[in-house]
Structure formats: structure tokens, C-alpha cells
């Protein structure tokens, strides 16, 4: 018989007024390993229960005095009696007694006549069931404690989406009242889009047993809250939901996102944000068959402003530029993607604008024009009135490129091209540009090597004194013998050298070589020859310039008065105060200074006076039309008169004919230079000319 295991606790209270029944019951219980205590009537049963707290009560319904129903009811009132299993023993066909037994709280009943062999097993079964229930109760209490400890709201949903229960959490965004939920469908409780997503996830959770979550936003207490609902399959055909208010986490995430995606100086999206916007726009345009444009803007003179007015003003300018860009771009011109907007600062003075849904190329050009116009209005910053211009490059999707990095690179290339075309420009990308830039890059690599590889050399163009017809000086003109492309003229590589800063070492090499050559001629031909050397703006601004000049003179032994440095008006006007200081230093060394290409720039008389240079070179564009071009003739004559008024020597450049020389002679021009007097030539040719001149004096203009 004893195949069933006895439960751990096994004391049974047997209450029956019939001693035979009690005896038999005790015997049967002992058979299955249970202890029993007896009570002969209801009152004895109650007092015994109070003392012993048995694990089960076997209770006869009919007892004299206090009957079994009363005993059962009273036990249920006691502290330990609420959950103890009570089996009532009823008369065989007494259905009413059975009903009543359940009403007063009986767990089970046995009807007479008792099937004695199974009594013990029946009792054991009830004990085990009650044990399981007790464990369940503990688990349930445990679960409730856990749920009470966490701030989440929890609910159970039927597979159809009806709330089975709903326990309000105590988190900050607790929203829905239990009464609003239980028995209702999620679609009656939550806004339709949220309910739909919840239902989708509910189905998924029931199908897969995965834990799923749904994020949504709801207004609560006048504030928008973010919630996360996690859905878990309970395994009983229901889904448990835990809802947490994640508003704080979202706020933190937003802040982190802002920091990662925002340019801290201007507050507009940064490079990372722009790249993501671009990627997003690409996908959108690809799917929708739309076009868009990328504008790449760079300020033309930002570095100069930063260098001269300081970084503080530079920063203010960037902020003002970003604000102005913001105002300039109509909301319709831009997209707001990932919450970043489409205007971005990539770094430095580089800004980008994304123009989605482009109908025609002209629209992008139109935006570029508006941006340029906006930049041209002066900026009032920190007591300074600042003028800037912008160069803009534009690339188009899909014609220029199909991926974001190409589109950005091409817009940058086009911007570079716009700058090369004279700044304050907007240019569309074209594939030929890449070729040009490629060769530009190659040229730059080559130029870096040119100095080391001895590929640079100088030619010298004679400068002749009009009255004496003597060669009194030369201008040094640099050339680059490229190993593959042959001789490259300076106009093609000097701007690149300027841009890359290579002009400084190249210029120093020119200066030293020219000084050395002038000294060599002087020694060989026993005559002083003035050497004119071009100085570019970058060289002029180089703080080591005076030192370089002094060292070139010292190392070669050339007298300072035999070196003439040619500067353009543009170089001198760039930063007047610094210019004066540098000019003073150079004059202090004792070298001569002249203004090159005069007439093509500002041609300001007051500046000329201030700069106090020895000579002025009239640009060849004025000479080339002479003598027919009466306007140029008048200008040339006026320049000569003015320069003489300032005690300056005048050199006419680009003299190609005898008639031009004749006219210049009449105007009183002091020196002439040009193909008519001699092309830029190697040093040997100049040496020959000097030697010939030593022997006989040749008249300049023909008769
Ligand atoms: N049509 C015509 N042209 C004439 C005539 N006579 C001389 N030229 C050219 O006019 C230019 C005069 O030099 P620049 O105005 O200083 O203009 C120079 C100068 O600004 C720059 N450059 C040349 N060498 C150097 C250098 O060593 N350093 C720097 N920084 N710039 C240089 O490159 C420019 C061009 O130099 P090049 O090509 O050598 O061109 C030279 C010369 O060959 C003439 O009768 N007719």
C-alpha cells in the first residue's frame, strides 16, 4: 500500500463522536505514516486545533453540541486555520451537507460509507495539494513583494489583448487607473498606434516565447513621458507586461546624443550628424527616386581673420556665420533628419547644407547664391566690422555619386575649384574636376621634390637704363624643369607653392641663388649688377624674412643695395600695419624695394607715399598697347609723372617694340624691361651682355 510518500508534516486531527470511526480512521492514517490526534466532539476539536495546529482536519459533520460545520467555520476564522485543509465526512446521500461543507470553507469531503482502504491515500493527496497551494501562496507573495519593490506597473493580458489585471507601479509616470483597464481591451485604453504595436508584439511573444518590448510616449500629468513595456509569455496562455517610465533615461540619452552630434561652438549639427543625415537622405532618395544636393561652403579669408584679430573673434565669426546660414536657408530648402537638421559644421570654417527633393540644378545654385549674398553683408563683431566671402562647391545625387562619401568629397572638390576660380564663387562638381585636382595633387608632390632634386633654375631678364642704354640690373625669374612635363612656367606652380607654403623654401632658394649669381657677375665683369627678386605675399609675411635676406647677403657677399625685392600692391595692402614694420626692417638692411605690376591693383597714391619704396614697375598690360592705345599712353605718362613726384624710379615692364621704348623714353621712364631688351635668359647670356657692354656702349632705341 505504501507507494505514496508521506508529506513532511503529518499530524491529522480526527474529530468524530463515534469512537469506532475514530479508531478506524487513526488506523488507516497510521497505515500511510500519518500521526493523528482525536477529538470526540466539536468543542474538543476546536480546543485541540488551537493547541496542536494540525496539518489536516478530518471532521465529521454530525456531532452532538458543536457540529462539524460550526467547527469548520470557526477554524477558518483562526490564525492558522485559514489555509489548513479540512476534509468533512458527510452522510452518503446528503448533497446538502456537501454544499454546506464547501460554504463553511471545507477543502474536500468524504461521504459515508467510507472506503477505508483509500482513506489514508485521500488524506495524503489532500495534504500534498495543500502543500502545493501553500508553496504557490509563498511564491505569489514573493512575486508580489518583488513587484512591489520595483517601480514598474504590471499587468496581464489575455491572448486577445484584454487586461486580466493591472497593478499600478509607483514610478514617476504611473498613468492608468486599474479600473480603467481590467476587463478592457488595450485598444480601449491606449491610443490606437500604441495599442496596435502592443498587439503585434503580444502575438509575437505568444508565438515565440521571446521577451519583447514596446517604447511609446504618453502625456501624463501634463508632461510627455516615455514608457517601455516589456512583454513576457507566462506560459499559461497569457502575457505579463511590465511598464517602466524611461523618461529620465531618454533625457540622458538625448543629452549624450546632443553632445555627440552637436558642434559645441555653433550649436548646429557636427560632421557625424551630417554624415548620418546624408546617409539617411541617400536611402530616402534612393527609395523615392528623388534628387538632392550637397553644398560645401568654406569661408575665403577665415585664416587671415583668425590670425589678425585672434581666435576669439574667429569663434564669434563662426557663430555669426552659422546663424546667418540658418536664417538664409528656408525651412523648405532643408530636411530635418534624425533631429539634426541639414545645416552642419564639419570643422574649421567648413559648413555643409543638404538640399533634399531637388527639382532642378538651378535650385541648388539659387541656394548657393543666397548663401554667398548673406556672407557678403559685413559682420559686426567685438567692435570690428568684418567682411568675408564664401566659396561653395555643389555635388548632386544621383548624377555625381551614389554614396555619401563620394558626394561629400565631390562637393569639397567643387569648393576647391570655386576657390581657385577667384573665391566668392559657387561651382558645381564635374568629373573633369577630379582629374584636374588629381593632377594638382601630383603637381604638389612633384613640387615638394623639385627643390631636393635640383629641378628649379633661374633665368634673368635684363633691366636697362633708358638714358645710358646700360644694362643695370636683371630680374630673377624661376623655372621648374619637370622630369616628365618639361619646363613649367612660374604662373603654373607659384600659386600652388603659395597655397602649400612651399613658396617659403623655394623663395629662399631663389634669393640665395640670385644673390650668388649677382655677386659672381660683379666679380667676373667688374661691374655692379642689381638683382631684382620677386617676393610673394607668403614670403613677405614670413617672420624670418629679414633674417633670410641678411643671411643670403652675408653668405654670398652681395652688397644690400644691389638686391631689389619686388612686391605686388596686393602683398603690401594685405595688412598695412604689419607691412610697415616689415618694410622698415628690410629698409634697415639696406636692400631696395619696388612695387611690381603697378596699375593692376589698388594704385593708391597715399599708400605709395607711406610705403616709401624706391621703384615702381608699370605693369606690362599698360605697355603692350603702346603707342596706339592713347588711354594706356595717358595712364603710363601719369604714373611716370606721379612716381617722379614721389622721387621714385619707374621701370616699364613688357617692352616689346622699339616704338614702345621710344615713347617711354619721351615720357621720361627710367628703366625698361621686356623682350625687346632681352628675354629671360640663362646666366651665361647675361654674362656675355655684361662683357660686351664693358667694351662698347650700345644705344638702346634704334634710329
Ligand atoms: N608678354 C611679355 N612678357 C614679358 C616680357 N618681358 C618679360 N615678360 C614676362 O613678364 C614676367 C615678369 O615677371 P613678373 O611680373 O615679376 O611676374 C612673375 C612673378 O610674379 C612670378 N615669378 C617668377 N619668378 C618668381 C620667383 O622667383 N618668385 C616669386 N615669388 N614669383 C616669381 O611669375 C610671374 C611670371 O613670370 P614669367 O613667366 O617669368 O614672366 C615674366 C617675364 O617672362 C615682354 O616683353 N612681353
From TrEMBL:
Response regulatory domain: from which residue to which, for each copy? 11-127
Recorded catalytic activity of this chain's protein = 3',3'-c-di-GMP + H2O = 5'-phosphoguanylyl(3'->5')guanosine + H(+)
Query: Entry's SMART domains?
Result: EAL (SM00052), GGDEF (SM00267), REC (SM00448)
Record InterPro entries: Biofilm_reg_signaling, CheY-like_superfamily, EAL_dom, EAL_sf, GGDEF_dom, Nucleotide_cyclase, PAS-like_dom_sf, PAS_4
Q: Which terms does the record give in the GO molecular function aspect? A: cyclic-guanylate-specific phosphodiesterase activity
Species source reads: Pseudoduganella violacea
Residues where 4-aspartylphosphate is found: 60
List the CDD domains.
EAL (cd01948), GGDEF (cd01949)
List this protein's GO terms for biological process. Answer: cellular response to nitric oxide; phosphorelay signal transduction system
**Any one Pfam family match given in the protein's UniProt record, by short name:** Response_reg
Query: Which residue range or ranges hold the GGDEF domain?
Result: 290-431
Keywords, sorted A to Z: Phosphoprotein
Q: Which NCBIfam families match?
A: GGDEF (TIGR00254)
Q: Output this protein's name.
A: Diguanylate cyclase (GGDEF)-like protein
Domain annotation EAL: ranges: 440-694
Q: Which SUPFAM superfamilies match?
A: CheY-like (SSF52172), EAL domain-like (SSF141868), Nucleotide cyclase (SSF55073), PYP-like sensor domain (PAS domain) (SSF55785)
Amino acid at each position: 500500500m505504501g507507494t505514496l510518500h508521506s508529506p513532511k508534516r503529518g499530524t491529522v486531527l480526527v474529530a468524530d463522536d463515534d469512537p469506532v470511526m475514530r479508531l478506524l480512521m487513526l488506523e488507516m492514517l497510521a497505515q500511510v505514516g500519518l500521526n493523528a490526534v482525536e477529538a470526540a466532539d466539536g468543542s474538543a476539536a476546536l480546543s485541540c486545533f488551537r493547541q496542536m495546529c494540525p496539518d489536516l482536519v478530518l471532521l465529521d459533520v454530525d456531532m452532538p453540541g458543536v457540529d462539524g460545520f460550526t467547527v469548520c467555520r470557526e477554524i477558518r476564522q483562526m490564525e492558522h486555520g485559514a489555509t489548513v485543509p479540512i476534509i468533512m465526512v458527510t452522510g452518503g446521500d446528503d448533497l446538502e451537507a456537501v454544499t454546506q461543507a464547501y460554504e463553511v470553507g471545507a477543502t474536500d469531503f468524504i461521504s459515508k460509507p467510507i472506503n477505508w482502504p483509500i482513506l489514508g491515500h485521500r488524506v495524503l493527496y489532500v495534504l500534498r495539494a495543500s502543500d502545493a497551494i501553500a508553496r504557490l501562496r509563498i511564491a505569489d507573495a514573493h512575486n508580489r513583494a518583488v513587484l512591489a519593490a520595483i517601480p514598474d506597473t504590471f499587468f496581464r493580458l489575455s491572448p486577445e489583448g484584454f487586461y486580466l489585471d493591472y497593478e499600478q507601479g509607483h514610478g514617476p509616470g504611473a498613468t492608468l487607473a486599474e479600473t480603467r483597464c481590467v476587463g478592457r481591451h488595450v485598444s480601449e485604453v491606449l491610443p490606437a498606434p500604441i495599442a496596435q504595436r502592443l498587439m503585434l508584439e503580444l502575438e509575437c511573444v505568444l508565438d515565440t516565447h521571446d521577451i519583447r518590448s514596446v517604447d511609446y510616449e504618453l502625456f501624463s500629468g501634463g508632461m510627455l513621458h516615455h514608457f517601455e513595456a516589456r512583454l513576457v509569455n507566462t506560459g499559461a496562455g497569457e502575457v505579463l507586461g511590465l511598464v517602466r517610465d524611461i523618461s529620465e533615461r531618454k533625457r540622458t540619452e538625448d543629452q549624450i546624443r546632443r553632445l555627440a552630434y552637436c558642434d559645441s561652438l555653433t550649436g548646429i549639427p557636427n560632421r557625424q550628424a551630417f554624415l548620418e543625415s546624408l546617409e539617411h537622405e541617400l536611402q530616402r532618395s534612393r527609395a523615392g527616386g528623388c534628387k538632392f544636393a550637397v553644398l560645401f561652403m568654406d569661408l575665403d579669408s577665415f585664416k587671415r581673420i583668425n590670425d589678425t584679430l585672434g581666435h576669439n573673434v574667429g569663434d564669434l565669426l563662426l557663430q555669426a556665420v552659422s546663424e546667418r546660414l540658418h536664417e538664409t536657408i528656408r525651412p523648405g530648402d532643408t530636411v530635418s533628419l534624425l533631429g539634426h537638421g541639414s545645416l552642419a559644421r564639419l570643422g574649421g570654417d567648413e559648413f555643409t547644407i543638404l538640399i533634399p527633393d531637388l527639382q532642378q540644378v538651378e535650385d541648388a545654385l539659387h541656394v548657393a547664391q543666397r548663401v554667398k549674398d548673406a556672407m557678403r553683408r559685413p559682420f559686426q563683431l567685438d567692435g570690428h566690422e568684418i567682411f568675408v566671402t564664401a566659396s561653395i562647391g555643389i555635388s548632386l545625387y544621383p548624377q555625381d555619386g551614389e554614396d555619401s562619401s563620394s558626394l561629400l568629397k565631390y562637393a569639397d572638390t567643387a569648393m576647391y575649384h570655386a576657390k581657385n576660380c577667384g573665391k566668392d564663387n559657387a561651382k558645381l562638381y564635374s568629373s573633369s574636376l577630379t582629374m584636374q585636382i588629381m593632377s594638382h595633387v601630383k603637381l604638389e608632390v612633384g613640387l615638394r621634390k623639385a627643390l631636393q632634386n635640383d629641378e628649379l633654375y633661374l633665368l634673368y631678364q635684363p633691366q636697362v637704363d633708358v638714358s645710358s642704354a646700360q644694362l643695370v640690373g636683371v630680374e630673377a625669374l624661376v623655372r621648374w624643369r619637370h622630369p616628365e612635363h618639361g619646363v613649367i612656367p612660374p604662373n603654373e606652380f607659384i600659386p600652388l607653392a603659395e597655397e602649400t607654403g612651399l613658396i617659403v623654401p623655394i623663395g629662399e632658394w631663389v634669393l640665395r641663388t640670385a644673390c650668388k649669381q649677382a655677386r659672381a657677375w660683379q666679380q667676373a665683369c667688374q661691374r655692379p649688377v642689381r638683382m631684382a627678386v620677386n617676393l610673394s605675399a607668403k614670403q613677405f609675411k614670413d617672420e624670418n624674412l629679414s633674417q633670410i635676406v641678411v643671411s643670403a647677403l652675408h653668405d654670398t657677399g652681395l652688397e644690400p643695395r644691389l638686391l631689389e625685392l619686388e612686391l605686388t600692391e596686393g602683398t603690401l595692402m594685405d595688412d598695412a600695419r604689419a607691412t610697415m614694420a616689415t618694410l622698415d626692417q628690410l629698409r634697415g638692411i639696406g636692400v631696395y624695394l619696388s612695387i611690381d605690376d603697378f596699375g593692376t591693383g589698388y594704385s593708391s597714391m597715399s599708400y605709395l607715399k607711406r610705403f616709401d619704396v624706391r621703384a615702381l614697375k608699370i605693369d606690362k598690360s599698360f605697355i603692350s598697347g603702346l603707342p596706339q592705345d592713347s588711354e594706356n599712353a595717358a595712364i603710363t605718362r601719369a604714373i611716370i609723372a606721379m612716381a617722379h613726384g614721389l622721387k621714385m624710379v619707374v621701370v616699364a615692364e613688357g617692352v616689346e617694340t622699339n616704338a614702345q621704348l621710344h615713347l617711354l623714353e619721351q615720357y621720361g621712364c627710367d628703366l625698361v624691361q621686356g623682350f625687346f631688351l632681352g628675354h629671360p635668359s640663362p646666366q651665361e647670356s647675361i654674362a656675355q651682355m655684361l662683357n660686351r657692354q664693358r667694351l662698347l656702349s650700345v644705344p638702346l632705341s634704334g634710329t
